[in-house]
Amino acid sequence: MVFAAIDIGSNAMRLLFCRVYKVDGKPHFSKEELIRMPIRLGEDVFLYGKISEEKANRLVTALRGFSELITAYGVLASKAVATSAMRDASNGAEIIEKVKKETGLTVEIIDGKLEASLVFSNHIEELINPKHAYLYIDVGGGSTELTLYFNNKVIAAKSFNIGTVRMLLDKIEKDEMENMRIWLKRNTVGIHPLFAIGSGGNINKIYKMSGKKETKHLSYDKLKGIYEMLNSYTYQERIERLELKPDRADVIIPAAKIFLTIMKTADIERIYVPQIGLSDGLVHELYDKYSHKLK
Question: FRET pair for 32, CA 20 to 30 Å: which of 1, 7, 20, 84?
Answer without folding.
Answer: 84
